[in-house]
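Input/output pair, single chain:
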Amino acid sequence: MELNTFWIIAVATIAFFALLQLILQGIWFGKLAFFKPAASQPVRYEGISVIVVARNEHDNLTHLLPILLEQDYPVPYEIIVVDDHSTDDTFWLLKTAAQAFDNLKTVTINHTPAGIHPKKYAITLAVKAATYERLVLTDADCRPCSTKWLAAIAANFDNKQIVLGYSPYMECKGFLNRLIRFETLYTAMQYISSALWGHPYMGVGRNLSYTKSLFLDNKGFHKFQRVVGGDDDLLVNTLATAQNTTVAVGADTIVYSLPKTTWHGWWQQKRRHLSVGKYYHWKDRLWLGLNAMLGITTHTLIYGGLITSLLWQQWLLAGIIASVMLLRWGFLGTITYLCARQLGDKFGIIWWPLLDFSYIVYYFTAGLSVLTSKKVEWK
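Output:
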């Protein structure tokens, strides 16, 4: 095969995969990027039980509880904090706060039965103790965006049993933080866009809502109670349908979370999250796997082709490949920007090209690590 023929085939292949990715992700994420909420209807507010599981979270609870207790919600609501084997001053903080606020309820766990993950057991006890049908879950290291958060979530509950929310990580200095926030945004774009298309497959427990009856009628975490993790995404993957699920988007619906500050800590966290994916419905695993492989293939072809053409001094071909790369950056970067704004996230898009490349490297290596590891620890 002549060199010119080789390069023609190479460039055509690169262009094909890049165009395929642009079309698929444009359609997929376009549902969120150009989302227009239905005409607003009068909201029928009902009582809500906010559930937080805490283990040695005294310091975080001192920040979270005031925000939860000060929610501007038009009808009575309650906060249930589960003290899960804490050895710090969590118990005394909750006891003091419960004496001051009638709507704060505490559940203390000193023993977890064998065969169920502690957090799943804690959530199950909280659900059973909940006064209200509508449940809203978050974590102790989270911070709702404002006092309007609970009302904004509740506004989406009408005739639905599951509400998927967005929970970005707080902005800090450094590239690691940018990558963490980009990965979280991209994950949200995937599951929220899929839900808007009528195929919900996951949610995040930092900002997740469902009804008490849905949880209890389906025996909660029974099908995967021995699985490490999955108290949020596996529950949604098991119970969510196009008919019973909706999304909450917008600045008032956001719950911020404290990010990891070390590469090792983040790596272990993401390996845990990815390890749960093997329990998803096979259609979801297939779709997410194909999307990941398309991304990896497109990146490899574009960057590999550009570097090779430059090394071989094929300047015209290098220019064509670079043009394809820039077109891809511009299109997907714009889609990401629009989705972020819909979600209420002010994520800076200037770093998008570097973060996009870094994300694929992370996803490939973390996924490979999970596949080749016999056990993923939950710490």
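Strands lie at 48-54, 78-84, 104-109, 134-139, 142-144, 162-164, 208-211, 245-247, 255-257. The longest helix spans residues 3-33.
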